[in-house]
Amino acid sequence: MRLQDKVIIITGSCTGIGKAIANRCVAEGARVVIHGLEQELGEAIVASLGSDKAVLHIEEITADEAPQHLVDLALKTFGRLDAVVNNAAMVVSSNTQTTDLSLFRKVMEVNALAPFALIKVALPHLQKRRGCVLNIGSLNAWCGEPNLMAYSVSKGALVTLTRNLGDTLHREAGVRVNQLNPGWVLTEREIQRKHEQGMADDWYEHLPLELAPSGRILCPDEIAAAAVYWLADESGPVSGQIVDLEQYPFIGRNLPKN
User: Fold this and answer.
1) pLDDT tens across 111-141, in order?
2) Distance between CA 8 and CA 178 in Å, rounded?
3) What are the pLDDT digits (tens) for 93-115?
4) Is 151 a catalytic residue?
5) Which among 137, 153, 136 is positioned nearest to 94, based on CA atoms?
6) Exposure letters 88-125 (e unless 16+ CB within 10 A, then b)
7) Which of 62, 182, 242, 254 is the most exposed place for a label (fewest CB within 10 A)?
């Protein structure tokens, strides 16, 4: 049990990557705070994990008191807090023409400012446990797609936040901060988004090798498996690191010639 008795808050864990991380954490001995906006989905996860292993909080992550509510719930239910996984994110298609300042601010609030707010509230409790933070970013942080402009910028901000806090909090409070940058992942919402964009129901079964050399894209369970290492004590003193998770090198890739 690599996470035996640890208590972990996982934002955005009613679906997708967050849900997979929650399931894997409990399988490794942890207890988790499930968070999201989907009441029924969240209740189903808690029921499957067991009320002694999981508790649910439904609230918009940008609400002023959301970080305090999550931390208080962890302490009230399980008596301690060992780690935070900042996974909740606003994934929205937008480019230069379709992005106004209101949308940009909202994406930044969800994807970059909310993680900082939760870390700040959780920090005194993480310090007591010499705990850690794991931020879930995106490969889009390095430049982004034309139609994921605001999202990509927000994930770039999260990279800098992780590197900054991964240094300062490790030295000042003994709290490690690291980040995973997944590539293309087959979540429930990604399947739905692509369908809404006009793609066939089985679009993920017919991907070009340039995008998926293995013939498929990543699944949430594979991201969850990687997350366990960074939440476990076995990752030792490593902090301030950004780890890309994709099936090809994102920077300096040798694309096949036509």
Assistant:
1) 999 999 999 999 999 999 999 999 999 999 9
2) 15
3) 999 999 999 999 999 999 999 99
4) yes
5) 153
6) bbbbbbbeeeebeeeeeeebbbbbbbbbbbbbebbbeb
7) 254
What domains does the chain contain, in order, with CATH numbers? 7-183+218-245 (3.40.50.720)
* Contact between residue 28 and residue 105 where contact means Cβ atoms under 8 Å apart: no
Question: What is the three-state SS of the chain?
Answer: CCCCCCEEEECCCCCHHHHHHHHHHHHCCCEEEEEECCHHHHHHHHHHHCCCCEEEEECCCCCCCHHHHHHHHHHHHHCCCCEEEECCCCCCCECCCCCCHHHHHHHHHHHHHHHHHHHHHHHHHHHHHCCEEEEECCHHHHCCCCCEHHHHHHHHHHHHHHHHHHHHHHHHHCCEEEEEEECCECCHHHHHHHHHCCCCCCHHHCCCCCCCCCCCCECHHHHHHHHHHHHCHHHCCCCCCEEEECCCCCCCCCCCCC
Catalytic residue among 151, 204, 229, 248: 151
Instruction: Look up tokens 């998770």; give the residue.
Output: 245
pLDDT beyond 70 at 257: no
How many CB atoms within 10 Å of residue 181?
Answer: 22
Q: What letter represents residue 35's amino acid?
A: H
Q: For residue 35, which of 6, 4, 67 has the smallest C-alpha distance?
A: 67
